[in-house]
Amino acid sequence: MNKAEILIIDDEPQMRKLLGITLESNDYKVLQAETGKEGVIQAASHPPELILLDIGLPDKSGHEILKELRQWYNKSIIILSVQNNETDIVTALDNGATDYLSKPFRTAELLARIRSAIRRNQTPNDTSIVDAGDLQIDLVARTVKKNNQLLKVTSTEFNLISLFARNEGRVLTHRFILKEIWGVGYQTETQYLRVFVGSLRKKIEENPNNPLHIITESGVGYRFQ
Q1: Where are the domains of the chain?
Q2: Contact indicator for 212, 201 with CB cutoff of 8 Å
Q3: Does domain 129-224 have CATH number 1.10.10.10?
Q4: Band of pLDDT at residue 1, cut at 50, 70 and 90
Q5: What's the burial of 65, exposed, middle or buried (CB within 10 Å: 0-12/13-18/19+)?
Q6: Which residues, 6+ apart, have CB-to-CB distance to 48 below 8 Å?
Q7: Is it true that the peptide bond before 104 is cis, omega within 30 degrees of 0?
């Protein structure tokens, strides 16, 4: 059994009921809160393994609650929202959300995102080798292997893939990636990033036009899996 506890912060009773049934039938323990204030109190008194956070809350914006939680809560937070605009999504991710799902969503996709987020929680921060199926990324030796064959990557390409690997399953925004790899002055250079991602995909993907590792989140950023 999973046994992991998941806190749902959502003001819609029907949504909480649906999520509760779905999660409990997959062996998760469920905690619920219908306001942001109640959610923060529950998370502080009994920190869960993961939080599902609605953006549209009655007392405070989910964005504000996210900022409050991120002052001390360091595990995964998945945003649930009826808002499917890029600004809302990017704001949430830049404020520390691990992932997001737009309502309505498919149950299978929700469960897959939860598994990925919990797996990320449980991965030691000092792991030096990231095993991603046919890829092995050695963060210390700064090498990348595909099917045990050493790939020739540039320093920037390695910095990029190591950032992705250390954040497996998490959606990274364009601004975040550009800032981490190239610095604050490059945060708007999305075309610059697109070129490097394209170059990296040619080296690590079986089919760069249908990537399995570096997934594009349209208008938002990229996810590594």
Answers
A1: 5-122, 129-224
A2: no
A3: yes
A4: very low
A5: buried
A6: 4, 5, 6, 7, 31, 75
A7: yes
Q: What percent of the chain has pLDDT over 90?
A: 61
The structure tokens 């449980």 sit at 122
Question: Going by DSSP bridges, is the β-strand pair 29-33/5-9 parallel, antiparallel, or unpaired?
Answer: parallel
146 beta partners = 135, 149
Tokens read off for 104: 């309505």
CB atoms within 10 A of CB 187: 16
Cβ–Cβ under 8 Å, residues 54 and 15: yes
Q: How far apart are the first and last CA of the chain?
A: 24
Q: Given the DSSP bridges, would you call strands 76-81 and 214-217 parallel, antiparallel or unpaired?
A: unpaired
Torsion of CA 29, 6, 126, 216, to 10 degrees: 130
Angle of the 36-45 helix axis to the 62-69 helix axis, nearest 10: 20
In this structure, CATH architecture of domain 5-122: 3-Layer(aba) Sandwich (3.40)
Local confidence band at 41 (pLDDT 50, 70, 90 cut-offs): very high
Name residue 61's amino acid: S
State how far the Cα of 170 lies from the Cα of 162, in Å rounded to an integer: 13
131 pairs with which residues across the strands? 136
Whether the CB-CB separation of 32 and 7 falls below 8 Å is answered with yes
